Amino acid sequence: QVQLVESGGGLVQPGGSLRLSCAVSGRTFSTYAMGWFRQAPGKEREFVSSITWGGSMTFYADSVKGRFTMSKDSAKNMLYLQMNNLKTEDTAVYFCASDRSQFGSSSDFGTKKNLDWGQGTQVTVSS
Fold first, then answer.
1. pLDDT of residue 8
2. What DSSP character marks residue 106?
3. Spatial contact of 125 and 14, defined as CB atoms under 8 Å apart
4. For residue 12, which of 80, 92, 72 has the smallest C-alpha distance?
5. Strand 68-73 and strand 58-60: pairing?
6. Is there a contact between 116 and 109 (Cβ–Cβ < 8 Å)?
7. Do 51 and 35 touch, CB atoms closer than 8 A?
8. Pairwise CA distance, residues 6 & 82, whole Å
């Protein structure tokens, strides 16, 4: 059974940086597309970024493009989200997610229905 465990959230001032991590177990990590989502208070969960199963391409929501960088380390079964120049509107619970199908696409990750989820980590951007 797959497990996804996020870490690295916290309180940061506007303009600051955080790196989120997601430890993945119970799955052949290198053959599944992965992604990050977030959910702000009172809002629906939204797509943040995704990475191809091979790790060669990444996709980002317009709101984070140029500020966030997603990566994966298949040797460690770890997923990362480097967040720079954080804004107050980035405040949310951040979730990592894994496609349930091997070798799936990543460009449409934000609309996929069959995903496995972590429990989330809180990111608060405030002065």
1. 97
2. S
3. yes
4. 92
5. unpaired
6. no
7. yes
8. 13
CA-to-CA separations, 94 to 37, 82, 90, 117, in angstroms, rounded: 6, 12, 10, 11
* Cβ neighbours for 22, distance < 8 A, ≥ 6 positions apart: 4, 5, 6, 7, 34, 36, 78, 79, 80, 81, 96, 118
Six token digits for residue 104: 């799936």
What pLDDT score was predicted for residue 39?
98
CA neighbor of 3 nearest in space, from 127, 82, 97: 97
Residue 120 confidence (pLDDT) above 90: yes
Asked if residues 7 and 23 have their Cβ atoms less than 8 Å apart, the reply is: yes
Q: What is the strand order of the sheet 78-83 is part of? A: 3-7, 18-25, 78-83, 68-73
**67, burial (CB in 10 Å: exposed 0-12, middle 13-18, buried 19+):** middle
pLDDT in tens, 36-92: 999 999 999 999 999 999 989 999 999 999 999 999 999 999 999 999 999 999 999
- Mean pLDDT score of the chain, rounded to an integer? 95
